[in-house]
Specification:
This protein is α/β, with parallel strands linked by helices. The protein has helices at residues 28-40, 55-65, 85-99, 119-131, 145-155, 173-181, 201-210, 214-223, 236-244, 252-259; strands spanning 7-9, 15-17, 21-22, 45-47, 73-78, 104-109, 135-141, 161-165, 185-189, 228-229. The protein has a domain at 16-194: NADP-dependent oxidoreductase domain (TIM Barrel, Alpha-Beta Barrel). The termini are far apart. Bound molecules: NADP nicotinamide-adenine-dinucleotide phosphate. NADP nicotinamide-adenine-dinucleotide phosphate is lined by residues 22-24, 47, 110, 141-142, 163, 189-193, 198, 215, 230-235, 238, 241-242.
Length: 276
């Protein structure tokens, strides 16, 4: 039985696990307990954010698990108030202090916030943080191709990862194709929501054919195509179920069937209109 997820190489020379633990809506206490337990069960990637207010709990969970720093991949994200070169550094230092870490594996600009129009400066700040060794890889979240075009043109540096809302009802094929053509790894947030998707007859049938659960079918539909994902669960049993999805083998036909459930871009939060 596989106990850890395979990794995907990032353009910036770092290996990232294909499946990890999401921690949105967990407070410090729950994050500490979930992270410790997930790591003991084989998780090697943890996704947090300044905005979740639980970086201290995540850091506690990492220490409680007693895992070597270089054996776990930690992602966090900065809010719009830090969109400047100096601000990005301050945000990174704040996150490191809350997590109790010396470096981050991946730091993301959480939302582009184009109304503020300072995401290019935020990106310049992240480029410097990587040059200075405070973060091993840098990326974006909720950036559309036209946002990515701007930061790449300004700095010549493409994000290693763009973390976006992606699931069988919002497959984001055009955005994913843009990522592939620019060497950017796609990471899917909220892969299991809306939960009605897990009762979709197509998902249920793929799961039946492969002898797995609907959640495992959805997660494997992502990771088998090299898309990183970070499902959140407060239940140790469901966390183990989610990690074990990496052992499922889908056929091209299974993958095409789930792809066909796409309902279009209108079903994801519009990052030209929303952000924090
Ligand atoms: N970059 C961004 O803007 C952004 C936005 C949102 C989220 N994220 C990240 O992405 C992570 C995942 O997204 P998410 O937390 O919104 O949603 P999610 O992981 O897609 O779904 C979580 C929900 O699914 C349930 N669940 C988990 N495993 C299950 C299983 N095997 N079978 C049935 N139900 C299951 C959970 O319930 P239980 O907890 O009761 O198991 C929870 O209600 C977040 O935690 C966060 O780290 C990033």
């Amino acid at each position: 039985m596989t106990t850890t997820a395979p990794t995907v190489p990032l353009s910036q020379g770092v290996e990232m696990p294909l499946l990890g633990l999401g921690t949105a809506r967990m407070d410090d206490a729950e994050a500490a307990e979930s992270v410790r337990s997930a790591i003991e069960d084989g998780y090697r990637l943890v996704d947090t954010a300044e905005n979740y207010g639980n970086e201290r709990g995540v850091g506690q969970g990492l220490r409680d698990a007693g895992i070597g720093r270089d054996e776990v991949f930690v992602t966090t994200k900065l809010n719009k108030r830090w969109h400047s070169v100096d601000g990005a550094r301050q945000a990174c230092e704040n996150s490191l202090e809350r997590l109790g870490l010396e470096y981050l594996d991946l730091l993301l600009v959480h939302w582009p916030n184009p109304d503020q129009d300072r995401y290019v400066e935020a990106w310049e700040g992240l480029v410097r943080l990587r040059e200075d060794g405070l973060v091993r890889a840098i990326g974006t979240s909720n950036f559309k191709p036209h946002h990515l075009d701007r930061i790449i043109e300004a700095t010549g540096v493409a994000p290693a990862v763009n973390q976006i809302n992606l699931n069988p009802y919002a497959t984001r094929a055009a955005t994913h194709a843009y990522h592939v053509s620019h060497g950017i790894v796609t990471e899917a947030w909220s892969p299991l929501r809306p939960s009605t998707m897990l009762q979709d007859p197509v998902v249920v049938e793929v799961a039946r054919r492969r002898g797995c659960t609907p959640a495992q079918a959805v997660l494997r539909w992502l990771t088998q195509r090299g898309i990183v994902t970070v499902p959140k669960s407060s239940s140790a049993e469901r966390r183990r179920e989610n990690l074990a999805s990496v052992d499922v083998q889908l056929t091209p036909n299974d993958i095409d069937g789930i792809d066909a459930l796409d309902r279009g871009e209108d079903h994801v939060t519009d990052s030209d209109a929303f952000g924090h």
